[in-house]
## 1
Amino acid sequence: MIQVANLHKSFRTQEVLKGVNLELATGKITTIVGTSGCGKTVLLRHLNALLRPDKGSVLIDGVDITRLPQKELYQMRGKFGVLFQGAALLDSMTVYDNVAFPLREKTKTPESAIKKKVDERLDQVGLGEMGGKFPAELSGGMKKRAGLARALIMDPEIVLFDEPTTGLDPVLATSIHQLIARTHDTFGFTGVLVSHTIPQVFDISDYVAMLANGVIEEISPPKNFCASQNPVVQQFIQGKTEGPLDVL
């Protein structure tokens, strides 16, 4: 479903992506790992063209989205749901209205049908009684759940998760991982998850991709990834400061 080819991206003099090549399997969860500041979120934002590359391509179902005009790109983005790092809920809206927002903005769905779908998504993420609350009244974990409900409201084919457990304690982080796994089983989307929560995130991943030094060093199933003889992968897994991996 998603193919990244020779992707380059620089910000002024800092070269972040130096020729990324990556294929993401349809209907699977692929987790992108790497050190802080290595470009994981930059790569993620190229997948739905929130950023444009300096060179290279991003193909979604065979279509290079880096070359699409704005109208067609907007339609392509309809395939995506995104759970942002901070959930990105609108503070002035209730949880219910936050989740309903994409349906109201992008479709002509009747309010009765919107209510049915929003209630269903809130139930699926364990927030069935929280629709009337405002984001400020929610815990960090609840905000992530509300963000996930909104990401799923349009029945996306692809869901991007930008460090979904940032700021959560280990228990809450595990609950969010389990929720991602359950919703993936229910909806069957292609998931791309950026995370530094290792090895816990491996439990819900079909594949793990290591971004280091501007390229994908390795991509493989979690068991194979952990057993890799690649010194960059082993340095990262073991948390060592000395080795071939650039440590910022």
## 2
Amino acid sequence: MMLALQSGFWGLLAGSALLIGAALGYFARLPRRLIASIMAFGGGVLISALAFDLMDEAYQRGGLDATSIGFFGGAALFTGANVILARHGAKHRKRSGGQQPSETEQSGSGLAIALGALIDGIPESIVIGVSMIHGGTVSWVAVIAIFLSNLPEGLSSSAGMKNAGRSSIYIFGVWTVIALISGLASLLGYAVFSKFSPDVLAATTAVAAGAILAMLADTMIPEAFEEAHGLSGLVTVAGFLSAFALSKLAVK
């Protein structure tokens, strides 16, 4: 029980970066190019984490078959959900400019954006809980990488929500709920999946990795490229290198 509560705490800690980012995006007048650059950095961090931490862990646990099925399945699940939500106004939920529709422009878009933000964060949180199943210690690389990527997600999305005319109650309510659900998802990731076989654990980790990569391609990278242009590649590489170095330092 204590380990499940610990996993919930780490998930909540990583999810709290969404609230910090939301506060920066709502109260600070940051240039959109800076916001996009931070988004690119976060994208690079996540790419490194899923490549060298999540996918490698999944492969070690369950081999190539379970990892491949989970990875593609996670991407397919996220893509399907994202297509549905995009039709209801959540397509630009991570954009910091005026791309997000207001409720008057598209009824129901507020709920769609909230649900979109939720499906973006759930896979990451489950991974934190699953990482504690063998050994009883959390993957520091995963927690730090998710925290660093959540910060620009909350920042950019809340700036876009504000530009779309959404209230502070809506904005901070959404991110508070998602931060709390992130903690719950991590707790459940440990409590539920600790009962399953290594193949199931491998597939679960790979599902999360596939969903994260699809999310990056569909939501974070387009925002970074549109605003940061030529700098987005360099900043993404910096984020990737930072997470890669962190993973190697954690091994020592």
## 3
Amino acid sequence: MSFDHIGVIGAGAWGTALANVAARGGCRVSLWARDPGAVTTMAVSRESLGLPGFRLDDRVTPTSSLAEAVDAGAVLLAVPAQETRGVAALAASLRAGTPVVACAKGIERGSRKFMTEVVAEALPQAVPAILSGPGFAEDVARGLPTAVTLAAQDETVAQALAQALSSPTFRPYHATDVRGVEIGGAAKNVLAIAAGIVAGRALGAGALAALTTRGFAELVRFGRAFAARPETLAGLSGLGDLILTCVSPQSRNFSLGLALAQGKTVEDAQRGGTLIEGIFTASVLTEMANERGVDMPIANAVAAVIDGRLDVDGAIESLLARPLRAEV
């Protein structure tokens, strides 16, 4: 199985970066954007509006035709988690058996579905896969060394997709634990908001280390409840991504935590069209955890702050006032 033509749906920062990744790997790439005007601009300037300042590889062809983008050996679905179902449903002309790789990190609100489940429902003829791990769009676009996890239920598919996207600076590890990869990407966004709050309140490096460690324990407990493999949760898409997003203002979720710690509102943080996946994932993550009896106090505190049930000081106090217990 090999892929010489890759379709990328979504010309935002991540979609643009992944389009260039696929092109560097030797693939011909069709990069889809909904707005024909944006496509014309990209075709002329060779620069994506979603990632200004970075040139599109010569093998990337911008298009506003979704049929053209899905007429490929594999498709990367690089749109926000809450838009994945709607955009995927538009790709009805997708050929049966085509791998569709979800590249968003989140859980669909309302349905409580993971991204590959959304793809399977919206495109039953597709072979769902997931790409996740520690990497920022700008760093990937610059060609800085990045390692991620690409998972599909069929190991042959996962391996072939990883091979197609690999390049000297982009290394996808293949896996079959689809759920574990999805859980790592979704949960770390919520925990990164908490890390941003700790940093924004200048609570110290020790507090940030403790928050990240206990947050990882929550991620692992949640993963176990959904039969994720421990090695996946401790890998790139779990611990690796959590470490990255809990220390860097490049993370939108970490930056949201910083803003909340400085007294700004969630609405203020989203002005200018900034999309922050953790805002949408926090409540559904905690609802799913509570249903299965999974203890996630940090995630619960973040959800309470985002929903307006607690202020930042109340959230910090609630965590520090928890009864002492064994470290498990």
